[in-house]
Amino acid sequence: MADLRGRVALVTGSSRGIGRAIVERLAADGAAVAVNYHARSDAAEEVVAAIEGAGGTAVAIGADVSDAEAAARLVSETREQLGGLDIVVNNAGITRDQLLMRMSEADWDAVLQTNLKSVFLICQAAIKGLMRQRSGRIINISSVSGIDGNAGQANYAAAKAGMIGFTRSLAREVGSRGITVNAVAPGFVETDLINDISDALLDSVRGMTPLGRLGLPADIAAAVAFLASDDASYMTGQVLRVDGGFGH
Ligand code: NAP
User: Fold this and answer.
1) Which of 26, 111, 150, 220 has the fewest CB neighbours in a 10 Å radius?
2) Are 26 and 8 in contact (CB under 8 A)?
3) How many C-beta atoms surround the C-beta of residue 221 within 10 A?
4) How far is the CA of 17 from the centre of ligand 1 (A)?
5) Which CATH code is given to the segment(s) 8-240?
6) What is the pLDDT of residues 140-181, one digit of tens each?
7) Within 10 Å of residue 242's Cβ, how many Cβ atoms?
8) Ligand 1: centre distance to CA 144 (Å)
9) For the chain, what are the domain ranges?
10) Hey, which residues are catalytic here?
11) Does residue 17 have its Cβ closer than 6 Å to ligand 1?
12) Do the Cβ atoms of 81 and 61 come closer than 8 Å?
C-alpha cells in the first residue's frame, strides 16, 4: 500500500473500468478522490458510495474532459470540494477502431479530442496550482498501442503516443517545481473498452503474454498508486508498461 493520506486526487473517467480501480485504490491508500464521469452519473455515484462505504472520501463530478470549459471546471470543483489537488490521473479514453482506409474524420477527431486534447486541457488547468504548491503528481494512462502500434487503431495509437511525448515534455518543464509527470502503458485489460474485440483475438493476446492472462484494472491501479506515492519521487518522464510481458 502507498501512504496517500492528506492528498487529493482527480482521476478522469473513473466511473468504470481502469479509472474506477484507480480511484478505489488511491482512496484505499488514504487520498480523497474526485470521481469524474461523462455520461453515467449513476455509475459514478455507485463508485462514490463504495469508497465511502469503505471509509474513504470521494465526490462525483460530471465533465466532458475534451471540452475546455468543462475540464477547467472539473479541476476547480475538485479543489473546492476536496480542499486541494495533488494527484492528477488522465485516464478518460475511448476507442473508434477502424482500418485507416475506412476511418472517418469524425472517428479520428473524437479519439484525438477525448484521449489527447483532454490531457492538455486538464494539465493546463491544474498546473498553476501544482507549481504554486511546489509538488504534484501527474500520471497519464497511455497504452502499449501508443508504443508498438496496432492495426485498426491509427487514431487511438496516435493519441496514446502523443500522450507519451506530452508526458516527457511536461516532465522537463515542471521537474524543478517538484512535480513529476509519468505515463502508464497498459496492455489489454478486462474492461468494457475491449468488449468489441473477438474472443479469438483475445485468446491470441493471452498466448503472446508471458504471464498468460489479460490485465485486471487493479493491476493498472497498483502502478498508478506507486507513481503517486513518495516511493516514486525520483521518477519522472517515464513510461511504465503494465502488460504481463506482452511487449517483450
Ligand atoms: P472504459 O471501461 O470504457 O471506461 C472509460 C471511462 O472514461 C468511463 O468512466 C467514461 O465515463 C470515461 N469517459 C469517456 N469519455 C469521457 C469524456 N469525454 N469525459 C470524461 N470521461 C469520459 O475504459 P477503460 O478500459 O477503463 O480505459 C481507461 C483508460 O485506459 C483509457 O484511456 C484507455 O485508453 C486506457 N487503456 C485501456 C486498455 C484496456 O485494454 N482496457 C488498454 C490500454 C489503455 P462514462 O461512462 O460516463 O462515459
Assistant:
1) 150
2) no
3) 26
4) 7
5) 3.40.50.720
6) 999 999 999 999 999 999 999 999 999 999 999 999 999 999
7) 19
8) 15
9) 8-240
10) 156
11) yes
12) yes
